[in-house]
Amino acid sequence: MTPAASPATPSLLHGRALVFAAILLAAVNLRTAVTSVTPLLDVLGQDFGFGTTMTGVLGMLPTASFALFGVCTPMLARRLGLERTTLLAMALATIGLLLRSSAVGVGSLLAGSIIALAGMGIGNVVVPPLVKRYFANKVGTMSTLYISVLQLGTMLPALLAVPVANAAGWRVSLGMWALLALAATLPWLMLVRRAPHPDTLAATPDPAAQPHGKVSRTSLGWGMTLMFGMTSLMTYSMFTWLPRIVVEAGASPAFGGIMVAVFSALGLLPSLLIPSLAVRMPNPFPLALVGFGCFTVAFAGLLLAPMKAPLLWACLLGLGPSTFPLALTLINLRTRTATGSAALSGFMQGLGYSFSCLGPFLVGWLHALSGNWVLPFGFLFVCALVMLSAAWFACKPRKLEDLW
C-alpha cells in the first residue's frame, strides 16, 4: 500500500481510539452556537433593545462565518496541522460561547457569536480530512457517526433553549454549551501533546504522492460546491420561511413551529443512511436524484396545496437535503489524501455557505416583490435543478488528485 493510500502512518495510529472520541466530540459542537440562540432572539432583543435589523444580522452570521472561515481553514491547517487546528476550533468555540453568554450589550453579543462561529466554521472543514487521515478504511461508518452526531448537536440546543431560559435565564441557556465545547478541547489537547512535531497536511513520506493544484480549476470541485451550496441555500430558506408559508395559508404560528420541528427531525434519517449507501455505490448520483425529487414535490405541495398534507410536505423537505451528508461523505470518497480532503472541504464549504447566505434574503425579497409564493418557489426549483446538475459532476467516480 502506498503512503498516500494508507489510512494513517504508524505514529498516527497511536491513540486512534482517542481520536475517534475526539472527532465525535468536535462534531457535536459544530452547530450549538447557531441553534441555541435563534429561539431566544426575541428575549435578547428585549434585553438589549435591538429590532428586526439586528435579528437579521444575527440570523446571517452563521452562514457568513462558515463561508469566511471555511475558505481560510485549509491554509491554517497546512501551517498548524489538522490536530492543532481542531484544538484551536474547539477553543474558539468555548471562548465565544462564554463571551456571548456574559454579553452586556449588542457589541459583546456579536463578538461572542463571531468567535464561536469562527471555531465552528473551522471545525466544519477539518473534521472530514481527520476522518480521511485516521479512518480511511471506515469512511462510511465514521461519516454516518459524525454527521448524525452533528445533527443531534443541531437539534438539542433548539429544543432546550427556551425551557432552560425559562428555568434559569438566557445566560445559562446560552452558556451551558461552552461546557460541551470545553470537553471537546481535552482529547485534542492530549493528541497535540503526543505529537513530537507539528503535523502539517503537506507532510507525506513520498513527495511524489503530495497533491497539488487548485480545487477551483476542477469540475469535481465546482460540482461539489454547487451541490452543497444549493442544498444549504434551500435548507436555510425553508428554516426561515416555512412557518410564514403555512401561517399565510391559514395555520397557527404554533403549527408553523411543528412544521419546522418535523423538517429538522427528518433530517436525521439521511444522515444515518446516506454515507453507508454512498460508499457502496461507484456513482451515488441516484441518491442526489432522490433528494431532488423530495425537494421538488415538497415545493409543489407547499405552493399549490400547503394545507392539504402539510406534514407530508415537511417530511419531504426533511429528506430533500440528502445531498448534505452525501457531499460531506464524497469529500473523502473523491480524494486520496488528507491534504486533498482538506482542500476540497475548504473550497466546497467556504464557497457553498456563501451561496446559502443569499437564500433566505432572496426568497423574502421575491415574496415581497410579488406578494405571493410563486416567484420564491420558482427560484427554489431552479436552485434544485442546479443542485442536481452539479451532483452529476460531483458523483462521478474519480479523484481530485488525479484531476490535479
From TrEMBL:
TM stretches of this protein: 57-77, 86-103, 109-131, 143-162, 174-192, 220-242, 254-273, 285-305, 311-331, 343-367, 373-395
InterPro entries xref list: MFS, MFS_Cyanate_Porter, MFS_dom, MFS_trans_sf
Keyword Nucleotide-binding belongs to the record: no
Highest taxon of source: Bacteria
Keyword presence, Metal-binding: no
UniProt keyword annotations, A-Z: Membrane, Transmembrane, Transmembrane helix
Descriptive protein name: MFS transporter
Organism: Stenotrophomonas tumulicola
Taxonomic classification: Bacteria, Pseudomonadati, Pseudomonadota, Gammaproteobacteria, Lysobacterales
